[in-house]
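Support reply, case 0932

Customer input (verbatim):
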Amino acid sequence: MGITSKEINSAFSAEVTALPGGEYLNRCFSCGACSGICPVSQAIHDFDPRKIIHMVRMGLKDKILASDLLWFCSKCRSCVFVCPQDVRFAEIMAALRQMALKEAYITVQDLVDKGKAASVDRDKCVSCLTCVRVCPWRVPEIDVKGLAAIDPIDCRGCGICVAECPAQAINLNESEDERLIAACGSGR
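Our regenerated output:
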C-alpha cells in the first residue's frame, strides 16, 4: 500500500525545524547510525529513527503524530554519540511530541494511560519528598497544597519514583513498548 498525496503535508518538515530541537532535522543524511545503535529499535523493529526522520521529511504529519512510535523513544541519547552529523534524534522526538500534544493528536491523559507518564494519587501522598529527591530529571514538585505533582509532559515514565514512593502514591501504567520489549526477551 502506497502513500497518497492526501497524506503528504509539504509544510510539515519546515514546521518541525522551526521548533526547539527540530532544527537538527536538516543535518541528517540518512546514514542509519542512529538506527543501528538504538536499543529500542533492536527490540521493536517498527521503531526506526532513520525511518521516522524520513517520514517527517516526506510530510507524513498525521501518520507520525498519531503514531505510538512517537512515544517509544526512551531518550537514552545513544544515537547522539554515533551520529556523524550531530542530529540529536531525541530532541527531534521531543519537538514532535510537543507538536502532537499541541495539535491534539494525543492528550495528557493519553500519556498517563499509555504508561508514558506517572501520576500521583493525591489521597495517598504524604508529602515525604522522596519522589522529588529520586527523580533524575527533577520532574516531581510539591504543589501549593503541599502534595506531590508530576507534569506528564516532562515525565519520562522511568518508574523510579513509583518504585521509591513509600506511600505507594505514584502510579505508572505498563507501556506498550515495555510489553513489546518483554516479549522479545521471552522469545515470543
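We compared this against your earlier run and they match. Two observations from our side: Strands lie at 119-120, 141-142, 148-149, 170-171. The chain is about 40% helix and 5% strand. Please reopen the case if you see a mismatch on your end.
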